[in-house]
Amino acid sequence: MQTTNVITLAIESSCDDTSCAVLINNRVLSNVVTNQEIHNLYGGVVPELASRAHQQNIVPAVDAALKKANMSLHDVTYVAYTNGPGLMGSLLVGASFAKGLALALNKPLVEVNHMQGHYMAHFIATESSTSIPPFPFLCLTVSGGHTQILLIKNHFEVIILGETLDDAAGEAFDKVAKTLQLPYPGGPLVDKYAQQGNPKAHIFAKPKVDGHNFSFSGFKTSVLNYINKQKQTDADFVTNNMADICASAQHTIISMLMKNVLACANEYNIKHIALAGGVAANSQLRKEITALQQHGYTTYIPAFEYCTDNAAMIGITAYYKYLNNDLGTQQACPQPRMAL
Amino acid sequence: MHNTLFKINTISELPQVAKYIANASLQHSIFCFYGEMGAGKTTLIKLITTLLGVNNKVTSPTYSLVNEYSTIHNTTVYHFDFYRINAVSEAYDMGFEEYAYSGNICLIEWPQNITELLPPHLCINIDKTADTSRTISISEVM
To answer: How many structural domains compose chain B?
Structure first.
């Protein structure tokens, strides 16, 4: 088995975006997420979601990733792909493509769990050597579809300490935005308005749940009920209080996240705390995680392109699996509800 | 089945509604849940899935569009959320019809976004009458 200059070709198609990355060992050479720009090169528009979109995107994405990495298909050591969790139709596109490619090139296959990819993004080599967390560390993975606190014991041994029982944190942001009539996905807009607002102006419910789990559904309803009540006396309540509502809602979501992360850090006596997932783009969350450094913690936030759904994180996970000789098979079938 | 109406004052009365709907799974496989955001669609679906024997964690599929659950009876239950769908073609493209005509139970939130694609189903409409009280009407759509 080749263990030096390992070239990974990784494919991610679990949800909306089709992505392809090329890595040499733990270093990313290219990480292409299909967008309008790439699609313009091949003509047509990018449909917003669904497996048919992946079908249209996958060849351009792989081609662009190889070109950007200055590699050809024959340089590739093995092919990696996401085999869950995600939409069956979307996963099938990536899985079938990866299997076909591996078969044609006579190269090994590696299957990757998308959720593992999120925390493994921390192991992508960067300029600074201090950006890779030592074991054990905590990882808060927050995205539109997931909210988890993980205890990472080594690359592949992970304990889920807490997770959402209903809505994901990113979804809570998007639904608050919807209540405020901001366009979907409104999370980034809530962040933007919140920067000018008072986080203590309005009080929203923080549902209590067992252990280190989360519930954002009750919070969402609390925001909704509060706003509807205020609108009865002041029709312009939302417009006049946009910044304060956003700041207060954001503060509530983030304080729920931070409280559980700190409780886990205390309980397991962990000093290294990492952030992953698309909500890692939220400026306040980044600020609060980073501020933990003043309290004796070391914190880690990957580059944003490795936080949202991307193939580089699938590639880095596959690289460690490949070194472990944990190879996939042509018989594998994607698993939409795959757990960590 | 005739139209059925439940008026409940608190969430503690929701299990009886869930029981009624779960029992209807003998005649129906498609269940559509209407109601504004925060009405309690996911909460009601959670109770129904427990009665159907689902042994996975039931979470919101807003982002994933569909969650697939397995039951203790070795059957599959699909939980959809079409909240963020902008065009019916997107539901077509995700293969909605394959799920809908699979014979497995489909619990669908925000079905109003894919009306054209809906097979005959049981319609569950949750009306928010106050912060905690709800009127839930259940009817067949053939």
So the answer is: 1
In order of A271, B20, B42, B72, B135, the CA distances from B51 in angstroms are: 42, 10, 14, 11, 21
Residues in chain A closer than 8 A to B89 (CB atoms):
47
> Per the CB < 8 Å rule, is B68 touching A337?
yes
* Mean pLDDT, chain B, integer: 92
- Rounded to the nearest 10 degrees, what angle do helices A217-233 and A237-268 cross at? 160
Exposed/middle/buried for residue A128 (C-beta within 10 Å: 0-12, 13-18, 19+): exposed
Instruction: For chain B, say whether A149 makes contact (Cβ under 8 Å).
Output: no
Contact A270, A137 (CB under 8 A): yes
Confidence of residue B88 (pLDDT cuts 50, 70, 90): confident
All structural domains of chain A: 7-122+307-323 (3.30.420.40), 135-302 (3.30.420.40)
CB contact under 8 A, B63 and A171: yes
- B48 CA to chain A: closest CA distance, Å? 15
What tens digit of pLDDT does each residue of A176-233 get?
998 999 887 788 999 999 999 999 999 999 998 999 999 999 899 999 999 999 999 9
Q: What value of ipTM does the predicted structure carry?
A: 0.76
* CB-CB under 8 Å, B59 with A178: no
User: What letter represents residue A61's amino acid?
Assistant: A
A205 CB neighbour count, 10 Å cutoff: 15
Q: Find the CB nearest B37 among A51, A168, A175.
A: A175
Q: Which two tokens stand for residue A116?
A: 């593992």
Chain B contacts of A340, Cβ < 8 Å? none
List chain B residues with CB under 8 Å of A171: 60, 62-63
CA atoms within 13 Å, Cβ hemisphere of A289? 26
Chain A residues within an 8 Å CB radius of B57: 163, 165
Instruction: Please indicate whether, in this complex, the C-beta atoms of B62 and A174 are within 8 angstroms of each other.
Output: yes
Q: What is the CATH number of the domain that holds B127?
A: 3.40.50.300
Residues of chain B in contact with residue A144, where contact means CB-CB under 8 angstroms, are: 62-63
The answer to whether the CB of A193 falls within 8 A of the CB of A243 is: yes
CB burial readout A39-74, b (16+ within 10 A) else e: beeeeeebbebbbbbbbbbbebbbbbbbeebebeee
